[in-house]
Amino acid sequence: PVFAGxxxxxxxxxxxxxxxxxxxxxxxxxxxxxxxxxxxxxxxxESREDNQKECELYIKDENFRxxxxxxxxxxxxxxxxxxLVNGSSKDSLIQFYDEYIDLYKIEKLMPPSNITxxxxxxxxxxxIQWQRPQINHSNKDKCFKYEINIKYK
Length: 153
What we know:
The protein has a domain at 12-105: Sandwich (Immunoglobulin-like). It has no helices and 10 strands. The strands form 3 sheets. It has a 4-stranded antiparallel beta sheet, with no helix packed on it. By secondary structure, it is mainly beta. Keywords: Glycoprotein, Membrane, Receptor, Signal, Transmembrane, Transmembrane helix. This is CSF2R factor.
């Protein structure tokens, strides 16, 4: 059966974020009814054409159980990425968890850089300029909206 394994043994609260342009951090919690010796393993696939890759740098909890992963050199493509977390235990079968994620939706953007402000007291106006932050995905010009909050002292 597709959902073979002990109920409540699959991971919970799976989430990923891409930061610093090419790093991805994924975390999860052990299933609430998983046996104490359960160990989890994360695999992901950027697109259908790519091979599935296992995490190379696991984050471990106080019981040395894998509860997260850091991936390097991540690139965001146009397809949803596939994530699979399965587990193993000596005591019982562990249910797997899988999810498709649009990577561009989980990218945490850096703030704008090289911000300059030039004010003309006579004209009573200011020119504010900045450089768009680097991003990983391809829709670079469609993603940015800025809000400027000016406070007077």
